[in-house]
Design brief:
By secondary structure, this protein is of the alpha+beta class. 46% of the residues lie in helices and 17% in strands.
Length: 269
């Protein structure tokens, strides 16, 4: 979001984080997926320890059979990716990644990192089912990959980086592969924007990235964008196909904006 709208981070910091059940479900799914990858692919967690830890997680009221299937699929995908290496690779799970070279005070966590033969794979499990997320041109994945390069680049030879988003509830797997040089060049271009965002400078720039911004209900720039959908000019007989397409696309943003405004307004009462 801040790569597009540099004012967003400081602006939304004044609003409470309303992460709810979906976030808690994601946290639980990641914990279960981590155990399975450590036991199955990385082979760093003995069976007895895995069974004990997994049994405890399954006592959580948010645990479901669907979560079991999805984390099984995630562990299998990691296993298959590792088996594609010419020799047994190094596998790290839930690793803290330093991002401060590109983002002031930046840090992240890599769900799964695989290294070997000049290749780095970084795999991100997304348990959400509401919004499909692509790895193509994905800034979060690129930043995490840069963090992995910083952490492991002095230990392993890395020529190419493959970034994958695994979204089992939507049956979606997408990847992007970049050379190390191309990824590092992108990171250099990112630095200036990150400094502007950290300082709270630049412009409010509304777009699809506003979807999860905590401040969208109070943002004047976003309001201007979504309200413009009501000013479409149409002939008397009805909207053109192009206008219909635009109305359907922007109408969804209008609905999300209204929900955000309502939530913000209620918080002031």
């Amino acid at each position: 979001r801040w790569l597009h709208c540099t004012r967003a981070p400081r602006f939304e910091a004044q609003f409470p984080d309303s992460a709810g059940t979906a976030a808690a479900e994601g946290t639980l799914a990641h914990a279960l997926g981590e155990l399975k990858v450590r036991h199955q692919a990385a082979k760093t967690l003995p069976r007895a320890d895995y069974q004990t830890a997994a049994a405890k997680l399954r006592e959580n009221p948010l645990y479901t059979a669907e979560m079991e299937r999805c984390t099984d699929a995630y562990a299998d995908f990691v296993d298959e990716t590792a088996l594609g290496y010419p020799a047994r690779p190094y596998i790290a799970v839930e690793q803290s990644l330093p991002l401060d070279d590109w983002i002031v005070e930046g840090a992240g966590t890599g769900d799964c990192i695989i290294l070997g033969g000049g290749q780095l794979d970084i795999i991100d499990l997304k348990y959400g089912k509401g919004v499909p997320v692509s790895a193509e041109g994905n800034p979060q994945m690129r930043l995490y990959a840069l963090g992995a390069l910083k952490r492991y680049g002095q230990i392993f030879r890395i020529d190419a980086v493959r970034m994958t988003i695994f979204q089992p509830r939507l049956e979606s797997v997408t990847s992007e592969t970049l050379s190390r040089e191309a990824l590092e060049d992108w990171g250099e271009r990112c630095k200036t924007v990150a400094r502007t965002a950290y300082a709270g400078e630049g412009e409010f720039t509304p777009g699809d990235w506003c979807r999860f911004c905590r401040g969208k209900g109070a943002c004047r720039a976003y309001a201007g964008k979504v309200l413009a959908v009501g000013r479409l000019k149409s002939p008397p007989e009805g909207m053109t196909p192009e206008e219909l397409s635009r109305a359907l696309t922007e109408g969804a943003a209008l609905s999300q904006w209204y929900d955000g405004v309502k939530e913000y307004a209620l918080s002031l009462t």
